[in-house]
Specification:
Blueprint (H helix, E strand, L loop, with lengths): L14 H11 L4 E3 L4 E3 L7 E15 L5 E7 L4 E2 L1 H5 L8 E14 H4 L8 H28 L4 H16 L3 E3 L4 H8 L3 H13 L3 E4 L2 E4 L1
Antiparallel strand pairs: 1-6, 2-6, 3-4, 3-5, 3-6, 7-9, 8-9
Length: 215
């Protein structure tokens, strides 16, 4: 299976060694259509997912059945790693493909156990994984900071501010529909729409569908 050269998990590993590594671990890619479930909340998990192409969304249902979007990730992202590494056997979240996606699953136990050859590229893969886990924790810490804000307006400005900082521009295109944005910010959809309209009237933001500009 051909792995794109910009997948960070395989950084500093030669293409031929990636093929050897995937073969050694018994890994093959699996395709998912838009909207298809990759991991269902409550299902058994023992592998770390890697997005080779496409985009995924991580969400969970609370005790009342309300959906909360945890995050959305694109090519090169890893998922389920925190649960698998912590020994959690059942997924507390659902992972869906938001567009046609190719995913590989790294079996955790085999990944963390070097083979008899003790290949250097296997160790490099583990080092890359640790770095990606640390970066992802920073992303999720940002989500926590956003949702800790008291008002819808504060949450919107915090979220758009972070997206603007990542893009290096005041205009950003977010990955969420309006319903999804409400689920991500953990607010009522109608209340969010009213607040966005008010913020635009006050000249704080401009928006058109998924395109937002901070003023």
């Amino acid at each position: 299976m051909l792995i794109p050269g910009n997948i960070e998990l395989f950084e500093n590993i030669k293409a031929e060694d990636i093929e050897r590594l995937l073969s050694c671990l018994g890994i093959a890619g699996k395709g998912f259509q838009k909207g298809e479930t990759i991991i269902a909340q409550g299902s058994a998990i023992d592998s770390i997912g890697v997005v080779i192409s496409g985009r995924i969304q991580v969400s969970r249902n609370d005790y009342a059945g309300n959906r909360v979007i945890v995050a959305e990730f694109g090519m090169g992202a890893i998922f389920a790693e925190s649960f698998v590494c912590a020994g959690v056997s059942r997924s507390p979240v659902t992972v869906n493909a938001t567009e046609p996606s190719l995913v590989i699953f790294l079996p955790y136990r085999r990944l963390m156990t070097s083979c008899e050859s003790a290949c250097s590229f296997h160790q490099q893969l583990i080092l890359n994984l640790v770095r990606l886990v640390a970066r992802k924790n920073l992303v999720l810490s940002g989500k926590l900071e956003i949702c800790s804000r008291r008002t819808i307006r504060e949450k919107v400005l915090a979220y758009l501010g972070m997206e603007s900082a990542k893009a290096g521009a005041r205009e950003v295109v977010i990955p969420f529909t309006r319903n999804e944005l409400a689920d991500y910010l953990a607010v009522d959809r109608s209340a969010l729409s009213r607040e966005l309209g008010q913020m635009q009237e006050e000249g704080l933001i401009e928006f058109d569908k998924r395109r937002f500009t901070l003023r």
